[in-house]
Amino acid sequence: MKVGGLGDVAGSLPDALRALPAEPDVRLMLPLHGGFDSRDLGLRLIASFGMLGYTREWKVQVYETVASGSPVYFVSGDGIDPDGPVYRPSAAADGPKYLFFSLAALEFCRQIGWRPDIIHANDWHTAFAVYALKQRYGSEPFWTETGSLQTIHNLPYQGQGAESALPEFDLPLSADPCVPEWARGFPLALGISAADKVNTVSPGYAWEILTHDHGAGLDPLLTARRDDLSGILNGIDTESWNPTTDAYLAHRFDLSRLADRAKNKLALQAELGLGASAAVPLLAMIGRIDVQKGVDVALAALVLSLDLAWSVVFLGTGDPALEAAILEFCRQYPDRARAILTYDGPLAHRIYAGADALLIPSRYEPCGLTQMFGMRYGCLPIARAAGGLTDTIVDDGNGGDGTGFLVPGMSEPEFSEGMRRALRVYKDKKTWKRMQRNAMKQDFSWRASARLYLDLYRQIHSIRQAERNRMAGKQTRDVR
Ligand code: GLC
Asked: What are the residue ranges in the chain where pLDDT is below 70?
């Protein structure tokens, strides 16, 4: 179930972990959202139980399927609308669903007698589990050895409003003095405060969220936890994103066959109804149409660069006002601009394979995946120097040894200047090709990051064991 980058991560990381020599027993749990075709999944009911709330008993059913050789559990029941979307427009509306899911996930482990070493929770939606583990279950023998990791994929989304769901399951507001007063019921703050370790999806973003500018109000809490905070870059699925084998491409290519890549550009220009031309650089912007992604900055920077030759294609969906601005831009510049405002996976592949450069003027970027897809396909990123973008793109100043172009400021003229710099290098075919080869050679697979996650899990496990030994020692002393 993929709505954004988190879907990519949750789908790929478990497989990458299992492929490590340690072969950890990884099990994935998610709500049985509306929109899954359960017949295709071959679901099997494996547990059914009740959870006592303040006003009623909540029935839970858990279904199992096996994906890439390991169990995936789908939680369904009274708290989850079988026809509901993954995300509703507000966290207030989604709070009860994700609190129910988080608690049911914990209770399910006990029901089947499977004691996890680590609960790894992603974003505010599952942070309730981390909080409940510490707040409520920590003292129960079943859970004393279970540690927790809270991953932050996007800090400003803290589950504001979801706190109204807490009383039903008798969970108090946070008593941690490092949690600001206004966030004491926000699930992400609860998770950050309660987890054994906290991480974000790039080292750069892990550092940025300690600052006032990017801390979204939680920088004091994160600073208090900085010894337990780290950043691990996301990887990408290098099998489905492989220009050598990509079934969506008319012309597959690799490092040594960049001429075949050029054929994809001509095919793409024809598909989009833009005049076919190898000489006119084709720019692209792919992903969520969102303020975070700086769509407005891209449009303004393009207008500032109208004296240069370029054409541009936008692909993605999101904010209606920004979508309207893109359509208006396309109306004004019909010879240069195209927009496909839907989620179209195959077209995304063809754009990465055919466009020359990607525009990524993100206001902030926890990790970002498009730049990695782009580089793997020889489509060079022109990106704001932020978070995961800085961690994955090499800018050597003049092109040559780099893999893309990083723009320091957020202003429209600065981004336009970055585009000009890229388009200057584009005219120098030799340098551009060298950069494409550099970019395509980067290893963005999950392998290295999965190892870092395993290390982090092991650290958490040691913390729990030390804690258990401390408790056991204390009990012995108390008995004496
Ligand atoms: C969020 C972030 C993005 C990140 C993704 C997966 O969507 O905005 O930067 O790549 O999560 O971690």
From this structure: 398-399, 478-480
Distance 206 CA to ligand 1 centre (A): 13
Question: Which ligand 1 atom minimizes the distance to the CA of 369?
Answer: 10
CATH architecture under which domain 5-235+448-479 falls: 3-Layer(aba) Sandwich (3.40)
Is the CB of 9 inside a 6 Å radius of any atom of ligand 1? yes
Secondary structure string (H, E, C) spanning the chain: CCCCHHHHHHHHHHHHHHCCCCCCCCCEEEECCCCCCHHHHCCEEEEEEEEECCCCEEEEEEEEEEECCEEEEEEEECCCCCCCCCCCCCHHHHHHHHHHHHHHHHHHHHHHCCCCCEEEEEHHHHHHHHHHHHHHHCCCHHHCCCEEEEEECCCCCCCCCHHHHHHHHCCCCCCCCCCCHHHCCCHHHHHHHHCCEEEECCHHHHHHCCCCCCCCCCHHHHHHCHHHEEECCCCCCCCCCCCCCCCCCCCCCCCCCHHHHHHHHHHHHHHHCCCCCCCCCEEEEECCECHHHCHHHHHHHHHHCCCCCCEEEEECCECHHHHHHHHHHHHHCCCCEEEECCCCHHHHHHHHHHCCEEEECCCCCCCCCHHHHHHHCCCEEEEECCHHHHHHCCCCCCCCCCCCEEECCCCHHHHHHHHHHHHHHHHCHHHHHHHHHHHHHCCCCCHHHHHHHHHHHHHHHHHHHHHHHHHHHHHHHHHC
* Whether residue 369 has its Cβ less than 6 Å from ligand 1: yes
- Tens of pLDDT, residue by residue over 346-355, are 999 999 999 9
Looking at domain 255-441, which of 3.40.50.2000, 2.30.30.100, 3.30.70.20, 3.40.50.280 is its CATH number? 3.40.50.2000
Centre of ligand 1 to C-alpha 370, Å, is: 10
Average pLDDT for the chain = 95
| pLDDT tens digits along 88-110 | 989 999 999 999 999 999 999 99
